[in-house]
Amino acid sequence: MSRVAVIACGALALDVRAISRARGWAVDLYPVPAPLHNRPAQIPDAVQAELERLEGEYDRVLIAYGDCGTYGALDQLLERHEGIERLQGDSCYDVLAREEVRAALEEQPGTYLLTDFLARTFEHTVVRELGLDRHPELLGDYFGNYTRVLWLAQRRTPANQAAAERAAARIGLPLEVLEVGNAGLERALETALAGAVRA
Amino acid sequence: MTDEEILQLLYEETLTGNAPAVAGGVNDGLAQGMPPESMLFDALIPSLEEVGARFERGDYFVPEMLIAARAMQGALDILRPLLADNESAQIGTFLMGTVKGDVHDIGKNLCNIMLEGAGFNVIDLGVNVPPEKFIEQIEEHQPDVVGFSAFLTTTMPMFKANINALEKAGLRDRVIVMVGGAPVTQEYADAVGADGYAADASTAVRKAKELIELRREKVLV
């Protein structure tokens, strides 16, 4: 049986854990702080640090990130680590519901996307990270061109629904919901981990 | 305050995004007869360049950059009419827009401020601008440079679509094309046939000036 590690973006880590448990996959999870998404140039270094820490300990390592605003820098890093792959797609939105997201953006370019994680942590990962708590006057600079919030609902629980509603209200936009579940992420993990984990 | 102290104040308060202090400093400087160009080129622009450098180093994040830009914008609002009186300050016209399908404009707006500060007449078409709108506005304003901005890898292909539209309209040789945005690289700019690319606002200004200079030299030869 292979020893498998998943270095996961903090925004996906809980979902990766839940899916792995449900599928009975024996993987060890190593989350990387989600707020790095606001400084994506730092993501490759953070992933590299985890890879160095885990070197020699696992038969297989998967990077649970999309490109995530690194614009190829993450891929360049992984080219130096043979056999280590990341999830396909530009972002976790792509991983969750690529076609639906592209259609939504084509229909309304001013669509601001939320995942469950983003909805739940909006005040911290968006409002505070973008300085809106200290500089509310910047709201228009960040969100003035958006016309709606589209929540890619992975689990439409009352708590997540309320969080998405709060997030949309915080930036003054109407909320729309697209229930995507976690099937896209599960498929992406399954493909990437094929043969490496016990079924 | 001496002129030197006002320049120091403008530099430091722009750096920390203190818009009221910057506006106050500009007004004080004007009241005591300081040339607008001095405040712009000896304090405000160097300060915003330092903001950009701090952002690149990771010392500043987006909010710090935005509040600094707002302070600079406030100063420009005061200085613009005075600078406009000086025709020699007018370097050229720069038509700017975020491409179709993309609504991101923070980087574009920073470029606009720096370009305007450097003496460009900037016409901003906003976001989600379709090729036909660029064509229409180029025909109307006859800019020296048109800038296409994109933040998404999915909207970058609009650079090529815009350049194709320029060619089709017979305008490609009449305007310099610059491209930029977070995912854009020099290689990509070359591949789509742009004349220039800049990774940040300060470089965009330098590159635009250089390209205009080159074009004017060619016309003279």
Question: How would you characterize this protein structure?
Answer:
The complex is a heterodimer of chains A (199) and B (221). By secondary structure, chain A is an alpha/beta fold. Chain A folds into two domains: 4-91 and 183-193, Dna Topoisomerase Vi A Subunit, Chain: A, domain 2 (3-Layer(aba) Sandwich), CATH 3.40.1360; 92-179, no CATH class. Chain A has nine helices and seven strands. Chain A has helices at residues 10-23, 43-54, 73-79, 92-107, 116-120, 122-128, 139-143, 158-170, 183-193, and strands at 4-9, 27-32, 60-64, 85-86, 111-114, 148-153, 175-179. In chain A, the strands form two sheets. In chain A, strands 2-1-3-4 form a four-stranded parallel sheet, sandwiched between helices. A three-stranded parallel sheet of chain A has the order 5-6-7, sandwiched between helices. Chain B has 221 residues and is of the alpha/beta class. Chain B contains nine helices and five strands, in the order ααααβαβαβαβαβα. In chain B, helix 1 packs antiparallel against helix 2, helix 1 runs parallel beside helix 3 (36-57) and helix 3 runs antiparallel to helix 4. The longest helix of chain B has 23 residues, at 62-84. The mean pLDDT of chain B is 93.
Write a concise keyword list for the protein shown above.
heterodimer; A: about 200 residues; alpha/beta; Dna Topoisomerase Vi A Subunit, Chain: A, domain 2; 2 domains; four-stranded parallel β-sheet; three-stranded parallel β-sheet; 7 strands; about 45% helix; globular; B: about 220 residues; Methyltransferase, Methionine Synthase (B12-binding Domains), Chain A, domain 1; Rossmann fold; five-stranded parallel β-sheet; 9 helices
